[in-house]
Predict the structure of NAD(P)H azoreductase.
Amino acid sequence: MNTAAISQHESTVPAILITGATGSVGSEVIKQLSDRGIAFRAMVRSANDVDRLSTLPGAEVVLGDFNDPATLAKALAGIERAFVLTNSSEQAETQQLRFVAEAQRAGVQHLVKLSQYAADRNSPVRFLRYHAVVEDAIRESGMNFTFLRPNLFMQGLLGFREPIRQQGKFFAAVGTARISVVDVRDIASVAAATLTEPDHDGKTYTITGPDALTHAEMADQLADALGKPVAFVDVPPAAMRQALAAAGFPDWQTDGLLEDYAHYSRNEASAVLPDVQEVTGKAARTFADFARDYASFF
């Protein structure tokens, strides 16, 4: 981490805005900024989150809603750099485009957007299409930018913790495909670097772990960390759809996740790239690291 660059942001008036501050990536970004003594503003939707996050050193927490331009304008006032992150909902494209327009209007100098591995307007995966649309809008805005394109999160496995606890199994429609899964903590480290250091303008970083693993290999490594059997069970897409619907996922998101897993199953997310090491100076965490660190969750 470039300490000279950090010092530019050590101020009682934050120059950095973090959206999505309560999610898996955003919460880790604000933790890392706080730990490094960097002032930041976090945008949240709930007053409870304002109270909770305001205890972090260096945090200024404001209420904001991606569907309300007035609250975005208030959150962006005086901001130099902003981290753009929303849930992957049916509204995500519209919400992020609205944020880009408000950031441009507010005079923001640099946007760091959390995108996704293989983002492409022509992708059969709706998530990858909307990310590409927003990337293009940011390019056309005239603001400086950095795009972060992480692969499947290791922490996504936490969504399977109940069947792992109760049955020693987890399920997905992915077959034997290899995926270069990445730890959220490494995604956050790359984000923190691009928000606080120079030389990332115009860059796109594809963020992967150090290995491409099958889901069965992940199960084996998780079993080693837990000291009990864990098995992966491949299921047809129809069964995965039923499980997602039963878990309460909206239809749009369910369809998107099935498209995502079809993309993974075609071995289209298996490349291992060095971007974590190159940006942060530290090697990307292995899945074994993740399994050991999160064993108590399972």
Notes: Confidence is low (pLDDT under 50) at residues 1-11. The two ends are 33 Å apart (CA to CA). The CA atoms of residues 146 and 294 lie 30 Å apart.
